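Example 3.2
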Amino acid sequence: MLRHHLSSYSQTLQRLGQFVLAQPQRVLYLTITELARESSTSEASVTRLCRGVGCRGYSEFKMALALETQQEQANQPEPLATHAFTTLIEESVAALRDTGALVDQSALQQSAARLGAARQCQIYGVAASAIIGDYLSYRLLRMGMSAQQFSDMHRAAMNAASLGPNDVVIAVSSSGSTKDLLHAVKLAKGRGAHIIVLSNTSRSPLATQADQLLVAAKPEGPLTAGSFHSKISAMLVIELLIQQLLEHHPERATAISSSAKATLPWLI
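Structure, written as tokens:
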């Protein structure tokens, strides 16, 4: 549909449409902010293009684009099972290496310092990002640091309303564009809480709220939410953060030992 109507659009929308048609796979992993910047247009232009092809917004447009791209790929010859096996392993290793190159060590150090001094730590994340939030909560608990994890953003918003300047919120979102998460984070920031964002996207509405932004490789597309590559990348960032916490607070190693001993009675 986009290709069919392209000639009837304004010059700006034509340039934007040509960008999408030339690089559909790349567009799937761009936020609306990134697409506007990469195509030298604006977020308003992106929204107009989406509505011009019958979509209510950018998320719906990306889903339609993903389904069309998937259909085109389905018509291609099936790769050999051994090739798919090798590709998954190679892409996973590449995701970890890319994350190592992307991660901001200064942001990690600052995040660790704020966490170590915080009155309390709250973790917000929905859907697949909640899994990463739960993993972070577990790693902090092993160090003797209690952190509440919220996957229900109504409760997160209520929690955010009770925070103050000595509290830390870690917001986990691969896209950085989840509306209800963004609402809770804005509430927390308005209360003076320190915001750490863990994302697979460096430019997003959520990133603008961050005091520290921790970026992992491999952003997700509409049909790849919760993908293995993006999640292991985020988990690597968590491990690097834990490492920094231990360097700032070596006494936490004792807490790790104590928490391990606490579970011994349940091990065979």
